[in-house]
Amino acid sequence: MHRRTRWAVAAAATTLAVAVGSCGGASTLEPRYVAVQGTLTALGLAQVGPILQGSLTQGATARTRQRLEQGNCYTFVGVGHSGVTDIDLLVLDAAGAEVAADTTHEQQTALQYCPSAAGEYQLVIRMTGGQGGFTVSAWTGGMSSGTSQPVAGGGAGTCGAPTAITLGSPITGDTSASTHQITPSCARGGSAPENVYSLQVTRRSQVSIALESTFDGVVYVQQTCGNTSTELACNDDAPDTSHSRVDVSLEPGTYYVIVDGYGEARGTYTMMVTTTEARPVGAVCRDAQVIATGQPVSGSTAGQSDTFQATCGGGAQSPDRVYRFDVPARSRTRVRQQSDHDGVVYIRRTCEDANTEVACNDDFIDTRHSLITTMLDPGSYFLFSDGYASGRAGNFTFSVDLAPENGGGATSDNCASAGTATVGAFSADTFMAADDGQGSCGGAGSADTVYRLDLQDRARVRMTPTNAEFRGVAYIRRACAEQASEVACGTMQPGAPILDATLDRGNYFLFVDGAAPDQFGEMQFELVTEDVRELERSCRAAPQLRTGRQVTGVTSGVDRFQATCAGGARSPETVYQLRLRRRSSVRLELAAQYDAALYIRRACMDRASEIACNDDSTDAQHSLIEQVLDAGTYFVFVDGFATNNQGSFTLTATVRPQ
């Protein structure tokens, strides 16, 4: 006799029906569930309460209440019917706090929970992807509270004696008493013990492995057990240290699934391994959706196979989707992708042939954006939306844009259509632009755009890129069409302005150009103009440093000077003069209560006259410069790392004549 369990269901727009109240099958049950039911029964687990069936629309949830007893471990299994791509299960305690969850991206779901106290719990069924019917049941037996015992295929297997995997059933285990023999590619340097499982694949399949662990777990697949060079997929965190996930397409054969730990981590875990027959690569390529360039395309890789891999993005061994687009003539090509996961985008000339990859990008700005800019010859190409390494899948939107090889017709393309450079944030996009000019520091043969810059007074002009799709140069001319009238030219440097020049009052033309012919796209800037008279007063008023004497001060206010180190040193600063009567060895020691920076110039307002710069000496609060300097006047700047680093400090200058 099984313990009777009360199921009370309440969910908006949810249809639920109790289909079966025993362990027996029924003709109305989903065939895939019947197979799972038979496996669990054969393993000695007993069904608790009736089988629950219902239907949900995407995003909807159903909730049931069940009394769980201390001393029992419960396995909850759910199967989505036709039209369902992702169903999740969660267990909540009496207070509504989540105590167990399986949120893998699959058409079926399973989790195990061993309550530490008896009471009423809620089982939440969530339709994450697709819509349609579901079948859910609870099982118990063979386990005791607080102890992880194998539900199916458990045990501390090794390469010599791996534990066979039973598909579709929860597998629990413990690596604590195992030994370390294998090192995964995604968690090198550790010596955590591992458990080894064998997996038989009888036909080309998409294999999904979801690991939930009480420690920082790792899961990976090898073709030859113990041979790292045969590793096919590896995942450490997805999305956190207690979850790992691998999705990989495998040809028929024997493979080894290995549960490991990051560093020295070890402990108990639950793993679920499921397979679905994978379509032939050729069939996937033939069915690639043809897309129009210049139009956004949205989709999802959730529930898809890992059919293709790439040279970037950790191999891009996650679920993927493929599209085809045509290039009528040699063109500039830009692909922008935004995703809700760590996405990857890449282009091939031939869909099935990984050797024809022409471009690949993992992260642009952050892990949720990817970018490709390249030149493509005429023909058909295949674009793949994928995920970083293993287990990254979700929604994405991308666009493929084409422009003529030589450009033309862009906004602010030339002197006749020059735009306006506005103080503050502005952007320039050279993707459609022609090559109309070049600067003394670069830009030959590259697409460029031009903007009017009008100064009412003599000013220091700083233009700092905040986001750039290409390596660029910028230059300023008095006369737009005359290269000889150039007054400033600069190239992109990490953390530094692309231009920093002092200009007299007047009208100028600002060019944004590429550092090479294949460099084009959008660049966003912060344009700042400063009254030179204020800067000059700051330099003239700089107090003098005396050798051997410690000075104290506080940096606050605005950022007026920058440096080549410390992320550009774009924080508020204090300026000092250092006068040397003869060639001397100079030691400058800075101690601060913030992440400080220290640099020295020959000319106060000329960044190019910087002699030395130091960010961290021993730690972020100390900086040190030791330099031999000729006789003359120098300017010493106490600044902060990057932006918004300011506070109190002490500075000591020691001078020893040579």
Principal-axes shape call: globular
Rg estimate, integer Å? 32 Å
Range of helix content: under 10%
Please outline the major beta sheet: 5 strands, antiparallel
Mean pLDDT value: 88
- Identify the CATH architecture of the largest domain: Sandwich
Number of helices: 3
**Count of all domains:** 5
Q: Strand share of the residues?
A: over 45%
- Low-pLDDT residue spans: 1-27, 142-154
The counted number of beta strands is: 44
What's the end-to-end separation, in Å? 97 Å
> Which CATH class of the largest domain is shown?
Mainly Beta
Question: The CATH topology of the largest domain, please?
Answer: Jelly Rolls
Main structural class? mainly beta
Notable features of this structure?
5-stranded antiparallel β-sheet; Jelly Rolls; 5-stranded mixed β-sheet; 4% helix; 658 residues; mainly beta; disordered N terminus
Explained architecture:
- By secondary structure, this protein is mainly β.
- It has 5 domains: 15-140, Jelly Rolls (Sandwich); 163-277, Jelly Rolls (Sandwich), CATH 2.60.120.380; 281-403, Jelly Rolls (Sandwich); 415-530, Jelly Rolls (Sandwich); 542-657, Jelly Rolls.
- The chain contains 3 helices and 44 strands.
- The chain has a 5-stranded antiparallel sheet with strand order 1-2-9-4-7, covered by helices on one side. The chain has a 5-stranded mixed sheet with strand order 10-12-17-14-15, with no helix packed on it. The chain has a 5-stranded mixed sheet with strand order 19-21-26-23-24, with no helix packed on it.
- The longest helix is centred in the N-terminal third of the chain and has 12 residues, at 31-42.
- It is globular and about 90 Å long.
- The chain starts with 14 loop residues before the first strand and ends with a strand.
- The model is unreliable at 1-27 and 142-154 (pLDDT under 50).
